[in-house]
Amino acid sequence: MQMIPLYLMLCFSPAISDAARTGGRDPLPPATQEDLSGVYWCEGKQGKKAYRGTVIVTRLGALYLFQWQLVAGLSYEGVGIRRGDTVSVGWTMDKSRGATAYHVLPGGRLDGRWVSIVGTGTDGESHTETLTLLRRVPPAGD
């Protein structure tokens, strides 16, 4: 078995090469990224079960506050951080805890995948959710 030199692994590792290319900084600092604050229409699937509702996204400095209100009457909150075209959000609803990773797409769309543990009946399985911008709102404090 031939060993791959460490420097080759470091040069071709996406995380390492991105950090080296940007000097450890985010490719797009928060001030130059499009603000995601707004009211979004939410559509998702948890297994075979579909759900929908609205999500209010509010920027507070480098943090984003997500507030879901589903048609079924469920509501929950989460906090997220953006890096480039990805927003990672941790959330809680009753005894459930979860995380969603959204890919920021043009035209006000966030395409997400989420996982949760405790109480959803699908612990650890990956599900989908799409947020579509209905209207922009100013960031908190503006």
Largest sheet: 8 strands, antiparallel, barrel
Shape: globular
Please count the helical segments.
2
Report the order of strands and helices.
Answer: HHEEEEEEEE
- Low-pLDDT regions: 1-21
Q: Percentage of helical residues?
A: 10-25%
Q: SSE layout and pairings?
A:
Layout: H1 6-12, H2 14-22, E1 38-46, E2 49-60, E3 63-70, E4 75-83, E5 86-93, E6 96-105, E7 109-117, E8 127-136
Antiparallel strand pairs: 1-2, 1-8, 2-3, 3-4, 4-5, 5-6, 6-7, 7-8
Tag the structure with descriptive keywords.
about 140 residues, mainly beta, Lipocalin, 8-stranded antiparallel barrel, 2 helices, about 10% helix
Describe this structure in words.
The chain has 142 residues and is mainly beta. The chain has one domain: Beta Barrel (Lipocalin), CATH 2.40.128.120. It has helices at residues 6-12, 14-22, and strands at residues 38-46, 49-60, 63-70, 75-83, 86-93, 96-105, 109-117, 127-136. Strands 1-2-3-4-5-6-7-8 form an 8-stranded antiparallel β-barrel. It is globular and about 35 Å long. The N and C termini lie far apart (60 Å). Residues 1-21 have low confidence and may be disordered.
Brief characterization of the structure:
It contains two helices and eight strands.
